[in-house]
Every structure is written in C-alpha cells, then in structure tokens.
C-alpha cells in the first residue's frame, strides 16, 4: 500500500487517561513493539493503542544475540523514527540495560532523552528492587513510567535463562513484590512477561496500574507482542507465547527472488519502467557524441591518488 492510499482516521491520540478508561471499562489494550518508520506507520494504520520501542530491537533489527548490548543512542534513534511514523498510539520507549540502574540521576537523564529527543510519551524499565526506586525518581521528575516484571530479558541470565517465571509460590511472591513496588512507585502501567496466567491473575488484582501481558494469559488489561514475531519477519526463536499472524519474511523473500530472477532474465526493467526521450533530442545527442572534439566540461581541482 502506498502512503497515498493509507487509511485516514480521526482517532485522537491515546492518552494515559484513555488507557485508564479502557482498563476501567474492561476494553482490552493492544500494544505492539516497533523499531522503525514504516513499521510504525503500519501499526498506526492497524489501530494499535500503544507502541513500545522495545530493547528487543537489539535482537530483532540490530542482530545482537541479547538485549544487553543495545545502547541509549541506538534506542533514541529508533524511537525517533517510530515517533515520525505514529501519531495516535501512546508511545513508550524502553530504557536499555545500563542506562538507569546505577543512580536516580542517570535514570532521570536517560528517561528525559527518551521524552525530549525521541518524543516518547513514557519510558519503560525492567525489574523491581532498585528499579522501583529508579521508577519513583523518574515519575517524580514528571515522566510516566511503565514497569516490567516476570521474565526481564536484560537480566535473564540471573533469572536462569529465558523461561517462565513465578512457577512456584516463592517465585510468584517475588514477582508480586516487584509488581507492588512498581505500582507504589507510581508506574501507570506494568508489563507482565512469561508468568502463568493464574499467577498473573492473582497479582494484577492487587494493583492500580494498567497491566499489559506478554505470555501472562488473559488476566491483564492488555497484550503486547513483538512486531517481527507477529508479522513473521523473525525467523529465529519464537517464545511459546508469541503468535504469528502473517508471513512477511516469506513475502519479502518472494519479492526479492522475483526481482533477482527478472534482472537475470532481462524481464526487468520492462518498457513501463523506462524513461523516453524526444527523437530529435536523441539525434542531437548522437551528433554531439560523434564529434571528435567532444571534451569533458568537468574539471577537477584534486590530485589523483598515485
Ligand atoms: O523489548 C521488548 O520488546 C519488551 C516487550 C517484550 C515487552 O520489553
């Protein structure tokens, strides 16, 4: 679909007030990750309520093997592109590993970059404990914060790898403590990742915050999926909770294969892709090119490399 034929709509931008109304009314919230301008436009056109510039960008588009290496400058650049592609969904920017843990000052400075430079509406950070203290500091600095509990990819090694969390009562209490700490810190929303549905159900009942699940079943107020998982652009690992709704990777590969084959067969470019020229201009060109005194009009003032 060309940008000229993009669907027009007059939905107002989604605000925290609107998200709270949706929670109150039991209207499920649809959140999607995005990392670039065209994907953001697709998500805008598809009518999502929230967009997360997730640090999953590290794996999905930057080719790192975990979310740990991605830095603040990379995240800000991606969030800016997503901002340019979205007007309506509420836009959340993930704070990457190392950009908020060390101090409240660092956390506020990183959060301010996401809001001021990238134009995000809120930031997200992972974990409870000191992360709840950082969240409170950022909220006090006037920036809305989304928390993230359960499987927190930035610290997955410490959690024993990429696996479901809260599967024993003791582990579920830890998830509950983290979520309650983030709620009390003033997070307006909390992501629950890879937690048994029944555990999530018990914990969300204790919270005021809007809850968004990814692998947490139906108990949360909304769902989030990674854009490349749901569109089928990712051909790598798919978590149990991810669902593929399209085969964009296959479609892209078929497109590029079609192009490569047509270049090789000479079928592309076809007459409709070629510019024409007035025959009299062509004849004049032919005569000029045939003149023996034809010289270049270009001059260079640099010395050629020896
Ligand atoms: O980075 C990300 O994409 C996330 C979602 C999985 C919630 O944090």
Describe this structure in words.
The protein has an eight-stranded parallel barrel with strand order 1-2-3-4-5-6-7-8, surrounded by five helices. The protein contains eleven helices and eight strands. The chain is elongated. The chain folds into two domains: 16-250, Phosphoenolpyruvate-binding domains (TIM Barrel); 260-290, no CATH class. With 306 residues, it is an alpha/beta fold. The protein has helices at 16-25, 37-46, 57-60, 72-85, 104-116, 130-140, 169-184, 197-204, 227-231, 248-265, 279-290, and strands spanning 29-33, 50-53, 90-94, 122-124, 145-150, 189-193, 210-214, 222-225. The chain binds 3-methyl-2-oxobutanoic acid (KIV). Residues 33, 52, 54-56, 94, 148, 191, 193, 214, 224, 226 line the site of 3-methyl-2-oxobutanoic acid.
Largest sheet, in brief, is: 8 strands, parallel, barrel
**Widest sheet, order of strands:** 1-2-3-4-5-6-7-8
The CATH superfamily name of the largest domain is Phosphoenolpyruvate-binding domains
Report mean pLDDT, rounded to a whole number: 94
* Second CATH tier, the architecture of the largest domain: Alpha-Beta Barrel
Q: Element order, helices and strands?
A: HEHEHHEHEHEHEHEEHHH
Which band does the percent of strand residues land in? 5-15%
Which fold name fills CATH's third level, the topology of the largest domain? Answer: TIM Barrel
